Amino acid sequence: MKKITLLTLIVTVAVPIFSQTEICQEPIFPFQQKHAHGSSIVEQPNGDLLACWFYGSGERTANDVLVQGARLKKGESEWSAVFIMADTPNLPDCNPVLFIDENEQLWLFWIAVRANGWENSILRYKTSTNYQDDGPPVWAWQDIIVLTPGERFYHEVKQAFEANVDEPMWAEYASPYSRMIIEAATDKEKRQKGWMTRIHPTVLPNGRILLPLYSDGFNVSLVAISDDVGRTWHASTPIVGLGPIQPTIVRKTDGSLVAYLRDSGSLPCRAMKSISVDDGETWSFAKDTDILNPGSSLEVITLKNGNWIMLYNDTEDNRRSFIATLSDDEGKSWKWERHIGRSPNESYSYPSVLQTSDEKIHVTYTHSNPTGKTIMHAEFSEEWIKAGD
After folding, report:
1. Does residue 17 surpass a pLDDT of 80?
2. 1 pLDDT exceeds 70?
3. Mapping DSSP to helix (H, G, I), strand (E, B) and coil, where does residue 125 land?
4. Is the peptide bond before 268 cis (omega within 30 degrees of 0)?
5. What is the pLDDT of residue 2?
6. CA 220 – CA 227 distance, rounded (Å)
7. Closest by Cα among 301, 66, 85 to 200
8. What does the longest C-alpha to C-alpha distance in the chain come to?
9. Tens digits of residue pLDDT in 170-198
10. Cα gap 370→92, rounded to integer Å
11. How far apart are the first and last CA of the chain?
12. Phi and psi torsions of 116, nearest 5°
């Protein structure tokens, strides 16, 4: 991999041995002109890294969009050639998420976008037990997940808005935002479609899998829950607020769960937070934190030593600054931070983060500059973050 200076992101020299005080960054494939976005990364049992992203001439409106992938073999510095992971004919395939379960089975979750509308998306998945060789995984099973949020979904949405949102200005020809969402929640079909992936699942100590989902139709989130290693799924209550989407979930030592969410609502532009005290079944009203968010995805995970790491854009209105932060008190404070990228004419967004078995931190993210766009891979340590900019 290659060492890149932080402020200018100019490639300098090759780094053959990983250093605790350096960051290594390298594009998974060369900068190019098509859209590449929404990456996800996992560590395979053999120590190799597997990443995927969606790629094509656009997003939901471009029917050539498909899911691509690549591998980085353990001990090597260059990613493999790109291969296809999923392609639904004549529909855009977006927002892929990789996951390896307790049985070392690989999952690929993603959405196929019907009628070129996010709100019409189908939640799809594939599984594989033969995925550690060169090229794409050998898929053994493929299906869709249809969640059936019932009348409780409507009542939870209605109660959450009525208890937490004050919208005094409205007219019969321009109903308030919350009233439109509540009305949509009465529609059984709308409740069952358009749930989209973005962030890695969280696995609880009891084996429960929590797959974070969100809806651009409702502008709310929920969690798909499985207690049988993915054989069946049911929906949590909705995570309601003024635009909380793309949740990322971490578990505290007291057993409660914290979901941090992208802010797609009104000012101020801040990451939002919701709490669950029943293993993800129900969630509190999502409220603003002090963490800046320009309407961009973020991810938080718990490291092996118990610290939390968050990757996000630390601005209110653009994706030109991208930061890693650490907390040693379960999110009460974020004591250390360091920029992975900062530039007036480059963009960094949609991180996917993991800590590998050797305790290194790996992040993939969308990176664009005047020459094009790629998925970037970064590797660093906690010590690198603590050293600061």
Report:
1. no
2. no
3. strand
4. yes
5. 44
6. 23
7. 301
8. 66
9. 777 878 999 999 999 999 999 999 999 99
10. 26
11. 21
12. 55, 30
